[in-house]
Amino acid sequence: MNNKPDLSLLLRDNALQGKSIVITGGGTGLGKSMATTFLKLGARVLITSRKEEVLQKTCEELRQATGGTIEYAVCDVRIMEQVEATLAKAEALIGPVNVWLNNAAGNFISPTERLSHRAFDTIIDIVLKGTYNSTLAAGKHWIANNRTGVFLNIVTTYSWTGSAYVVPSACAKAGVLALTRSLAVEWAKYGIRSVAIAPGPFPTAGAWSRLFPENISKKIDPLSRIPLKRFGEHEELGNLASFLISDFASYINGEVITIDGGEWLQGAGEFNNLEHIPAPMWDEIERMVRGKKSAE
Ligand code: HXC
Ligand code: NAP
After folding, report:
1. Contact assessment for residue 45 and residue 23, using Cβ atoms and an 8 Å cutoff
2. Fold (CATH) for 20-265
């Protein structure tokens, strides 16, 4: 099967010049990778999370790697005052913010009956509250100052299907998707677009350690769930994100783009598991099915 991704930049040089982008949870994983792509395309970026050491290190690394302008602010997205302070800091350091990427998240697998209400709060607060805090802070600021902007929200494919064993995350991500689609309509009049990406599995230390611990991966191969039989490459997500926040996507509003190798649909189609029927068996099956018709 030839499904080799092209990992070079999708957009031309400096396609994101003039974009000032805040990325929550931008010090690690997918946030860091999207920051890398944005910087290569000429955007100015400010990354946030709770850990200053991580942010500092990522800033140094990406400045060196891309030569771009990247700053950081320590910010717990659950706390509105910190989000507002981050917006102010970003405007001072990278100029008027016109893109806000809600990427910060918390998650872990657990049977729901083992969860305390505090465990539920922990995930909902980071994912849903963190996203609406950010959205209110940046959105009100843009509206009050007559400025346009883009919200890009990272959700998951179980935002619309739900998922067992990550129920707080599923509830929170469903809320983020609802927020995306609601504001796409309500705030369009201010020139504010809201879009989302639903990634399937993209290996990161944060997600893998909490969702696919070794004893589970030994029992259930996550690749077996993906029709394209590979995980996503971070550059693929970076290219999609850079397109969605760019002016090339200025007519895309309220959309969620799935990038998962077909994973969620494989789980959804009634007969998709017939994939496991060995090819020679189809002759016998056809005979039986056709025979049934003539027996009626
Ligand atoms: C049951 C648990 C638990 C577990 C924590 N809790 N882990 N309950 N099983 N495995 C409970 C605790 O007992 C406590 O409740 C409450 O949750 C809060 O736990 P803390 O450890 O105090 O919280 P905190 O230190 O804030 O840590 C938050 C965290 C942590 C979410 C648990 O993992 C974190 O900071 N994660 C950030 C990064 C992250 O998760 N990245 C992955 C995103 S991946 P009690 O009642 O005891 O007080 C992702 C991908 C989705 O979203 C799709 C993939 C395909
Ligand atoms: P990750 O590296 O763990 O990223 C999560 C980030 O969120 C971390 O940098 C973390 O930093 C930050 N964060 C957590 N709580 C925060 C808080 N209260 N305030 C501010 N920042 C906080 O995991 P990832 O895999 O890259 O995930 C990134 C995004 O992609 C998430 O939205 C996730 O749901 C989504 N996603 C990932 C996958 C995948 O396969 N990797 C698939 C679907 C969706 P601190 O802990 O330092 O604060």
Report:
1. yes
2. Rossmann fold (3.40.50)
Indicate the top mutation candidate among 107, 154, 256 to test ligand 2's pocket, ranked by most ligand atoms within 8 A of CB.
154
The domain spans of the chain are 20-265
Query: Residue 2: is its pLDDT beyond 80?
Result: no
- Give dist(CA 16, CA 238) in Å, integer: 12
Angle of helix 29-40 versus helix 52-66 axis, rounded to 10: 30
pLDDT given for residue 291 in this prediction = 84
Question: What b/e string do you get for 49-67 counting C-beta neighbours within 10 Å, with b at 16 or more?
Answer: bbeeebbeebbeebeeebe
Helices (H), the chain: 29-40, 52-66, 80-94, 117-124, 130-144, 158-161, 167-186, 205-211, 214-219, 234-245, 263-268, 281-295
pLDDT, one tens digit per residue, over 41-64 is: 999 999 999 999 999 999 999 999
Q: Give this prediction's pTM.
A: 0.97
C-alpha torsion angle, residues 87, 89, 93, 95 (rounded to 10):
30
Cβ of 163 less than 6 Å from ligand 1: no
